[in-house]
Every structure is written in structure tokens, then in C-alpha cells.
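Suppose you are handed a protein chain with no further information: no name, no annotation, nothing but its sequence. What can you learn? This example shows the usual starting point.
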Amino acid sequence: MALLISEIYASIQGESSSAGWPCAFIRLAGCDLRCRWCDSPFAFKNGQPLALDAILERVAALGVPLVEVTGGEPLLQKEVHPLMRALCDRGFSVLLETSGAHDLSSVDARVVRIMDWKCPASGESGRNLESNLALLRPSDELKFVIADRADYDWAKEELARHGLAARVRNVIFSPAGEMNAVPGEIPGHPGLAPRLLAEWILADRLPVRFQLQLHKHIWPPHQRGV
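A reasonable first move is to predict its three-dimensional structure. Written in C-alpha cells, the prediction is:
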């Protein structure tokens, strides 16, 4: 059994409630979405096939107890489920970063699911699988990457309509901006100023967590392996 792997590395976790902690990242290759500000298009295809045992050995050698499985879209590869189970069995704390376009029901209950609920300006909001919202657990996190006021208003409506703040550990609002984007890939969207998003959240007293991508303030935004 093998998975297509884009990269495996240790870095500082830049997002979610685990931000700031050393973290081992397993980035799987392949994605069926094309968000307008994707920061990892290199993971769309290619990838190196690695056996499960080889992946586990490489992660163990990094010496970090927190592991994130990301992509691409990791749930495209069915072998990701044995990988996550094996990581949990070995005592790792496991995070899964997924778009929300694929069914969460088979994900091991020990895994923290961080679901990126796509806003309209991403170009992929129509791919959100609404049945996933019913599968969310108190340990999970839900992320909205917001490009403009229309995205913000849409996300605010989703928050209220589904009672999301009461159902997950964190609802995260993050600005889509130049640091998030592949240069030239957001026509008509130069990026949302973080301060503006923060001011909207404060004005509405939303029960959400404002987030910047911490790792992109430590290293160059498009540097790989960090």
C-alpha cells in the first residue's frame, strides 16, 4: 500500500488552534479543486509513491508529536485512512486539513478535522459538501478564507444558519491576501487587508477566531518545506 506524497517536513504549525507548535507535515499530492488563491499548486499532481511504513518512518525521524495530513486534498487517496489510523495508533496527535468537498464520515475519530469551507470568491463554494457539516465534532475546526465583504457576509450567514460556533472547537476567519495567494491568480482581488477583516469581526462581535498564516510571517510566503 502506497500514497502519492508531495513532501514530508517539520515546521511551525501556522494555522488552527495548534498555531505556534512544532508540527510534522505530510502533504499528499493531488487535488480536484482549483481555488483562486491556492498556496500549494505544486501539489496538484506528480508526487512520489511511498509505502505506509516508509511514511511512518520518515515522520518518526522528525521527532515531532503533532502531525498534520494535508494536500492537495488528502481525502482523494483512500489510503490516507490507514495512514491516519496508524499515526494515531503510534501516539501522534493528528490533524487533517481538508477542503470539505469530500465525505468526512470515514475519518478516524481520534483525528482533528480542520475543514476549509470554501467561500464564493474562491470559485469553489459549489463543491462544499453540506452533509459534512452534520459530521462535525466538538474537537473539529472550521475555516473560512475570506477575500472581500461579500465573502464575509456569506460566511457570517453560514455561521448563523448552521449554528457552527456552538458545534466545533473553533470557527476561523482568515483573510485571503497577497501572502495567501499565488501571484497573479486572483484577478480583481488584490487581497483583503487583515485589519479590515478584524474590524468587521469586532463590529459584529462574531464568535470566531481571527487568523493569519503564522508560517508565512516567518519564512517567505511561497517557500516550500516550511
